[in-house]
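Appendix B. Chain record.
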Amino acid sequence: MLNQKLQQTLLQKLSPQQIQLIKMLEIPTTELEQRIKQEIEENPALEEGEEEEEEETTDEQEEEIVDERDGEEENEDEPVRSEEDEFDFDDYVEEDEIPLYRLVVNNTSLDDEKKEMPYASGITFSEQLLSQLGLQEVNDKEYQMGAHIIGNLDDSGYLKRDINAMVDDLAFSQNIQTTAKEITKVLTLIQEFDPAGVGARNLQECLLLQLKRVNPQTKDIELAIFIIKNHFEEFTKKHYDKIEKKSNIPKEKLKGAIDEILKLNPKPGSTFIENSRTQQFVVPDYIITNNNGILELYLNSKNAPDLRVSKTYEEMLNSYSKENGKTKNHKEAAAFVRQKIDAAKWFIDALKQRQNTLYQTMLAIMEYQKEYFMEGDELLLKPMILRDIAQKVNLDISTISRVANSKYVQTPFGTFPLKSFFSESISTDSGEEVSSKEVKRILMDCIEGEDKKKPLKDEELAEILHEKGYNIARRTIAKYREMLNITVARMRKEI
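Structure tokens predicted for this chain:
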């Protein structure tokens, strides 16, 4: 049975302006410029440039205006066209005519510098292999099979697709009847292509392909091939003592073979991709300078562009409001103009709020980490979390998180991501709170200075830090080590 009832509830709902501001806070400077250009394209009431101040008319100018009006009254028979008449709303709302603003796009300013950056064009990894395949003496069927194999290689140059599965793929997709033996024959041909190791089905096969192509085949290379073929699992786990005992290989010869293996590339395809990858440059959102011991903070000029509401659209709206007869088309046109003007004002206000929020947040961070910005030593970084800055600027933690995300600051010591200045606190024996970055720095120094034949375990690293006065557990050491991309002690071992 359906019942109707009246109920009142209190809900918190973000306004469109608040949602727009939140999205504006998240984007960095490089994306902000594109966002502004997009808004200018979509909203014809928004223009680039500073807001024009209305000039005050002097007594002499008023007399000239009165004289002009007197002259106009004497010539009443002559048609006079005022500035407001330049924009006819009937033409503006004409259904068959496309407005000019939809046909013309001007996203540049007179102050913009026109710079052209040439990009080097080259062939892809697959195209390079296909060009080598074309130089081989193969028939049409073998060429199509080879192209299918090359298309199944991943970015590292490995073939992850099963041979039998490719037999079915060729039959269904290209109507090519073949066998696993024929595909393996073509795969063996591709494995002779450059870079060495391409077309391998696993790491062991990749290393063997590279070792067999080394010229000349020295005793170290022959021993390396033996190790990869027969003791690959022990090699990957760096159990060199087991290899030494099982094969009766002297430690000196084993070291020479291991050195040859370490020279190989486990991802042969990545070399080509990294060379063809375009360089990306970081544009800082903030600039901090040290002026004779005084820190000065600047926002990137692209964070505060000059935008204004179109004077043309304001005049159009004013002229319509003075008219007496209002048709349906006039009302629709006025509503459209008013909507675009309001959207332009909201966008300009959002940019100003974004600029103010960015500046206040970075100013609080700069004052909190003043010693670091003065000296540039990571050991001077204080423990700082999002709540600390949120309390200083009286903003929500989520707002500080959005500001810190994807933002960069340029300092006298380099350009760093803003979130790198946030860190947890660790207490020392003296009760002092220090940053986790200081602990990571000491941890890195200990690992760099360790004996690679007997690398330090996590328990030993924890004892070293305890001796230095840092109360830190072994599991925390493991967490920091993983954050620094440092492997366990066994994997750092060298002969």
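Further analysis of this model is presented in Appendix C.
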